[in-house]
Structure formats: C-alpha cells, structure tokens
Amino acid sequence: MVFEPNQWVDVTDPYATDIDGMSSEENAIATIKDGDRIVDDYVWMHDDKPLPADEELVIYEMHVADFSGGEDDPKERGKYKHVIEKLDYLCELGINAIELMPVKEYPGDYSWGYNPRHFFAAESSYGSTKELKHLIDECHARGIRVIMDGVYNHSESSAPLTQIDHDYWYHHEPRDPDNNWGPEFNYEHYDENLDTYPARRFIGDCVRFWIEEYHIDGIRYDAARQIANYDFMHWMVHETKQAAGSKPFYNIAEHIPETTSITNIDGPMDGCWHDSFYHTVLAHISGEAFDLENLKDVLDPKRQGFMGATNIVNYLTNHDHNRVMAELGDRGILDEAAFRRKKLGVALVMTAVGIPMVWMGEEFGEYKYKTIDRAKIDWTLLAGELNQGLLAYYKGLIGLRKNNRALHTANIEFFHENPEAKVIAYTRWNDEGSRVVIVANFSDQFLAGYTIPNFPTDGTWHEWTSNYDVDAVDSNLMTDLGEYEAKVFVWQ
Predict the structure, then answer these.
(1) DSSP per-residue letters across 310-377
(2) 31, 25, 30, 32: which is closest to 11 by C-alpha?
(3) Dihedral angle at the C-alpha atoms of 18, 96, 347, 404, nearest 10 degrees?
(4) CA 187, CA 191: separation in Å to the nearest integer?
(5) Cβ atoms of 121 and 104 closer than 8 Å
(6) Cα 281–323–296 angle (5° rounding)?
(7) What is the pLDDT of residues 162-216, one digit of tens each?
(8) Architecture of domain 413-491 in CATH?
(9) 80 and 129 in contact (C-beta within 8 Å)?
(10) Contacts of 134 (CB under 8 A, 6+ apart)
C-alpha cells in the first residue's frame, strides 16, 4: 500500500482482542484491570480435569451459529451459550472432542469463518469472550477437548495488516488463483533489519494467544496445501506444543488431497483429514463402486504410506461436502435404504484405523445440502423412528470406539474377501487381548447363513450392533448379513 505525504489512515490494531463492529466504523476495545490490559476477568474452573489422549478421540465438527436450536425453536440460538446447552447431548452421544469452525472475528454477523479479519478477537456475534471461555471450560469439565479451526493461509481482504503494508505480510499475488480466498500470508519473507519473519511472528503470536488465553486443545489448519511451507508448519507445531505444556495438543492439517509427507517422521503435523476415505466409502455405500483394494487402502491408511493411528482423521462427510443423506438422495436412495447404508458407513468410520469425526447432525440423519447461508440443523428430525435408530447406532459404535483399545491402535488385518458377494472382513486388536472383527456386506442381497472362514479366534463373540452372542467354531463363524450391512463382533 502506498500512502500520500501527510495522509492519515485509520487502521484497527491487528492485535485487538475485542472489536466493536456495530457502527459503520470498527473500533478496537481495550479492557484494563489493575493497570494491565486483559481480555476479560474469566476465572477457569476445570483446568484440572483429565482429557482424552489423541488416539482416544471421537471428534464432532460444528458451526456455532447452526448447531444449536432447531427449525421449530422459537428461542434465539446460535451463541456460545447455546452450545453449552447441548453439551450433555454430546456427552450422551459419546463425543470427547469438538472441532469449532473458525470463531475469529469476521465481517458481518454470519459466516463459516474462513474469512478472518481480526485474528486475536473472538467472533462477537456468537457472544462475549467470557462466554466462549465458559463453553471451553464446560467442555473440559465433561472431558471434552476443544479443537479450533485455524485459518493461517489467508485473511479477509480488509484485515488490518493488508491496510498497513500488504506486501510486507502477504504475497504480492495469489500463488494458486483457482484456490484463493483472500490475501495469502508470505511465510518466506524475512526482514533483515528486524531479524524476523513478519508473517510467522504474527501468526505465531496468534496461535500462542489462543492456547494460553482460551485453553484450546488442538488446531485444525485450513488449506495447508496452499500454505505450502513445511518449515513454517514445523515451527508452528513446535510453538503449539510448547504453549500447551503438559496437556495433550493435536495439530491436524486439511491438505486436500491428503499426503503422507505432512504427518510422517519428517512431517510437521500430528494428523490430517483423510478425504480419500470420504470419497471411497461414499462410492461403496451408494453402490457406485466395489474395489476391494481401494477400500482396504482407506480402512488401513498404512497401505497409503501413513504410519500411525493418529495420522489421519476419517469422516463420512464434513462441512466441505454435502451430507450423506443428500448424496444418497441424489442417487435415488431414500428412507430405510438410505439409513441402512448410512449405518454401514458409520461402522467403517468407527472401526477403521484413524481418528473418527462426525459432522454435526449426521448422527441423526440431517439431510440439508451444503450451503454458506444459514442452515441450522433440524433437531425435530429426532422425532422420527429411523432417525432415533440411527442416533442409537452412532451411540453404540462411538461407545465401542472409545472403550475398546483395539480400535486405538494401527493394527488391522483383512482376513476374508469375497468379491463376488461383495463382502469383506477385517480384525482390529491390541497386545492386551482386545479384539474386534468387522464383516461388511456391500451388496443389495440378503446373505442368510453366511460363513466367514479364517475367523481369528474360536469361542464366543458378542455382535455389538444387534446385541447378541455367537460362537466361532473351527475358525468359522456363521451369521446373517443384511444388504448393505456391517456386523461388528467383539471378543468376549
């Protein structure tokens, strides 16, 4: 930006933690207590509560404005405090981590948050900074970790740094014009006079601030592929771990398509979104494909080159994709048939190697199309019998995923494959005697008395989804397999 001599330019403090955007002009508000500048005087109550380790997580992705309330709810909804009202519901579901879509201050009163203008200020349309802290504190009280969606590739076009000196903090031009969402931070630019990387310093200050001030437990890095700087990411992850201290902290990259290089030995991140899982599983539960090798690749990401159980985050869908029910509906798969196939997908998410994630409302069959406009999830759907059945199915499998440590490992073996019948069976285990077997039928045929050979262990197994016991004899187990159905057997 070039200024004329003696030109006066009003710029909001880039480090402002409270923004008054109600008037035509934005103003930064500073709060002073005992002579010191503070964000607020919130007193944390539950910092001593134990939180789950990374490998134990079941993540629930939510958008604050659209999560709480419902289509027939007359109350005002969409605030931090309204999410608190739903935390007991999330606990009953079995969720132990929520991933908040970006809550840094953006222009206007409704957005997905991927256009951050003020990086140190919490989105005021959702409530006050104290209310956000109260939400995080109440999550911690229930053993729920809070992962923040962080946008560090770019900012909104009128962010303060763009007005001070665009080319000092940002690239002159977008590096990937087809995937450009605003001015892109230049993490390669080094200021020799000040002996600093300006953009790194700013974002590093931002990340440390959110960990120390808001006590968050992880960050999901939006558009990591566009950031395209592993050196910066390594440094950033180091800063997060140092700021978090002894508490667990999970760094997740959204790198589309996923790449092993971002998580493995030399990679900067702890994990990354597993988008090939979404595409592959959707194709299989909708009947568009049956490719055993492709399916095995996403169920066992080690086949793709990933190294551990926390390196990838699996999902049936997320905010970037349409809901599963919408996708199935577009293919003419409706009602009970759609719920049946959705359950098959859920069984795969909760038993595959990796960390499972649920997009809000998926657990009871929300079906709205993806939209950047207001789209509150419809809690009235829970009145439906099929919706209640799906919710109960999620609860059961999430409970299994959390409590059976075989599913926290990277151990998986595919011991039965039947391409003609479209059946696959695999087992998960740990070194302490826990074992789970999943048998999945990807056909539209009911398979009565189906025999699974080479069953891992003879003896009594408990079928988790329908709650009955069955014996494996001479390395064979017989069961009925419904169309597009998974059976989950737990070793007794």
Answers:
(1) TSEEEES--TTS--HHHHHHHTT--HHHHHHHHHHHHHHHHHSSSEEEEETTGGGT--PPP-SS----
(2) 25
(3) 160
(4) 11
(5) yes
(6) 10
(7) 999 999 999 998 888 888 999 999 999 999 999 999 999 999 999 999 999 999 9
(8) Sandwich (2.60)
(9) no
(10) 42, 80, 81, 84
Query: How far is CA 107 from each of CA 17, 127, 206, 428, rounded to the nearest angstrom?
Result: 15, 15, 19, 47
Closest listed residue to residue 18, CA positions, set 130, 174, 166, 178: 130
Q: Determine the length of the chain.
A: 492
Q: Yes or no: say if 276 and 293 are a contact pair by the CB < 8 Å rule.
A: no
With 0-12 / 13-18 / 19 or more C-beta atoms within 10 angstroms meaning exposed / middle / buried, residue 395 is middle
Question: What is the enclosing helix (H) or strand (E) of 275?
Answer: helix 275-285
What residue segments make up the domains of the chain, in order of their start?
A: 19-408, 413-491
Copy the structure tokens of residue 455: 């069953």
CA distances from 204 to 149, 187, 303, 382, 482 (A): 15, 11, 35, 43, 52
Compute the distance between CA of residue 467 and CA of residue 485 in angstroms, rounded to an integer. 15
pLDDT beneath 50, residues of the chain: 22-23
Task: Note whether 334 and 328 are within 8 A (CB).
Answer: yes
* pTM, full prediction: 0.96
Helix (H) or strand (E) holding 20: strand 19-20
Written as one letter, the residue type at 372 is I
With contact defined as beta carbons under 8 Å apart, do 451 and 420 qualify?
Answer: no
Question: Terminus-to-terminus CA distance in the chain, angstroms?
Answer: 68
| CA-to-CA dists, residue 295 to 123, 202, 304, 433, angstroms | 40, 42, 11, 27
At 239 the pLDDT is 97
pLDDT for 23 equals 46
Note the pLDDT of residue 74.
64
- Whether domain 19-408 has CATH 3.20.20.80: the reply is yes
| pLDDT tens-digit series, residues 411-463 | 999 999 999 999 999 999 999 999 999 999 999 999 999 999 999 999 999 99
Express the helix, strand and coil content of the chain in percent, nearest 5 each. Answer: 35, 20, 45
Spatial separation of the C-alpha atoms in residues 84 and 255, rounded to whole Å: 31
